[in-house]
Design goal:
The chain is an alpha/beta fold. The protein is 17% helix and 32% strand. It is built from seven helices and 19 strands. Strands 1, 2, 3, 4, 5, 6 and 7 form a seven-stranded mixed β-sheet that branches. A hairpin with a 4-residue loop joins strand 2 and strand 3. The chain is globular, with a radius of gyration of 20 Å. The termini are far apart. The structure holds FE2/S2 (inorganic) cluster. FE2/S2 (inorganic) cluster binds next to loops.
Length: 325
């Protein structure tokens, strides 16, 4: 196999060199990639809901959910949808990347953990099916009941739809928008302490689920977003201070400057990847003060706890935030 080395980017922590072992187009717009370490060693363990950073030769870093078998220590599988108006990462994968190329990966990380439950309702929109695949496997292995609602533009555009239907029959409900809309709230139903709901997909789907489950017990409905939702204006428009515990240093963060940038500028080592509050790479402990959460990762309970934040996007409500690096 010819190895064509894609450049690796030091912005992502613990970048491993992996070879693109296989690339397979599974729909018009979706490429399925199998990755293994270039040195043949094991890859880090992962759990359903995890994602990796894919570091491409054009300098872009993107996050993709792992969709393969958690018990295979040598391979990661991801699926990349071609985004026509994206930031270029998916175009690079579809148009430039080839089997045999070496790319970098960071992680895995899991911001979307599957919590044990007797019953699950999984909801996926489009490429949001990817984290659901290992979740479904895990649910089946736990002996849990589960159902999947899988929405897409058309049946032919929905990756893994045929396999899911063939393997699981009536547990899987596929619905293409060209055949009419589904009332997501009705499908979810009323709160049930024995049922947890996991959703991944576009903003409109996430919002429908968030609305339908707004009155539920916290933690019973978990969502994973592709993009950060609009966090609105920051809670304060004036500068604030960030004290780095144990360093004796206090950094002033001016309006319009990200906390992560201010920390780096001051000489602190802080790892970032997406810089959009989506991936979780920059998670930082908060030991004092009141963070202004602006990420797409934490749920309401985690936000209220106030003991961590994501400084690539989040800020401070209080005059001073004390963090531990
Ligand atoms: S770098 Fe991705 S959440 Fe901060």
């Amino acid at each position: 196999m010819t190895v064509r080395k894609e450049a690796m980017d030091a912005r992502v922590d613990a970048v491993d060199a992996v070879i693109v072992e296989r690339m397979r187009r599974i729909t018009d717009r979706v490429m399925h990639l199998t990755l293994r370490r270039a040195d043949g060693e094991r890859l880090p363990d992962w759990t359903p809901g995890s994602h990796i950073d894919l570091v491409l030769g054009d300098g872009t870093t993107r996050q993709y959910s792992l969709l393969g078998d958690t018990r295979d220590p040598f391979r990661y599988e991801i699926a990349v949808v071609r985004e026509h108006d994206g930031r270029g990462g998916s175009r690079h994968v579809h148009d430039v990347l080839q089997a045999g190329d070496v790319v970098g990966i960071g992680g895995p990380r899991n911001n979307f953990r599957l919590v044990p439950s007797p019953r699950y309702r999984f909801i996926a929109g489009g490429i949001g099916i990817t984290p659901m695949l290992p979740m479904i496997r895990a649910a089946a292995e736990m002996g849990a009941e589960w159902e999947l609602l899988y929405l897409g533009r058309s049946l032919t555009s929905m990756p893994f739809a045929d396999q899911l239907l063939e393997a699981h029959g009536e547990r899987v409900r596929l619905r293409a928008s060209d055949r009419g809309r589904v009332d997501v709230a009705s499908w979810i139903g009323a709160f049930d302490a024995d049922t947890k709901v996991y959703t991944c997909g576009p903003v409109s789907l996430i919002e429908a689920v968030v609305d339908a489950t707004a009155a539920w017990r916290p933690g019973w409905s978990r969502v994973e977003r592709f993009e950060a939702s609009d966090a609105g204006e920051p809670a304060r428009t004036t500068a604030f201070e960030v004290e780095v515990e144990g360093s004796g240093r206090v950094i002033t963060v001016e309006p319009g400057v990200a906390v992560a940038s201010a920390l780096r500028e001051a000489g602190f080592d802080l790892l970032t990847s997406c810089s959009r509050g989506v991936c979780g790479t920059c998670e930082t402990d908060v030991v004092g003060g009141d963070p202004d959460h602006r990420d797409a990762i934490l749920d309401d309970v985690e936000r209220a706890a106030g003991n961590c934040f994501f400084p690539c996007v989040s800020r401070s409500k209080s005059d001073r935030l004390v963090i531990a690096l």
